[in-house]
Write a structure and sequence with these properties.
The protein is an all-beta fold. It contains no helices and eleven strands. A hairpin with a 5-residue loop joins strand 9 (about 90-100) and strand 10. The chain is elongated. The mean pLDDT is about 95.
């Protein structure tokens, strides 16, 4: 079974930085996509950053220029570097992995989430 272990969340003041990491393990044949999502209380889960199999990166306007996503497929790890954090960035951040399993099925898995709180 696939597991995603997230870390790096915490409480920071506005303008500070955090780096989140997500390490995947298990029956992963190939990675199609790795990304970060977040969900604030009372809001829908939204995309923060994602990397497709071909290296295409997507950021929403809300984080573009402040957040950077990068990965190491060999290590099955994806990071999210968050700079110039704002209070509105406060949310639970989730790692998502789309991959092919041993039966060539495309499967999506989610991490447990890590809390990021930006407050003065």
């Amino acid at each position: 079974q696939v597991q995603l272990v997230e870390s790096g969340g915490g409480l920071v003041q506005p303008g500070m930085s955090l780096r989140l990491s997500c390490v995947a393990s298990g029956n992963i044949v190939s990675i199609a996509y790795m990304g970060w999502y977040r969900q604030a209380p009372g809001k829908e889960r939204e995309l923060v950053a994602g990397i497709s199999y071909d290296g295409t990166i997507n950021y929403p306007d809300s984080v573009k220029g402040r957040f950077t996503v990068f990965r190491d497929n060999a290590k099955k790890t994806v990071w999210l570097q968050m700079n110039s954090l704002k209070p509105e960035d406060t949310a639970v951040y989730y790692c998502k992995l789309d991959h092919l399993d041993l039966w060539a099925r495309v499967t999506s898995d989610w991490g447990q989430g890590t809390q990021v709180t930006v407050s003065s």
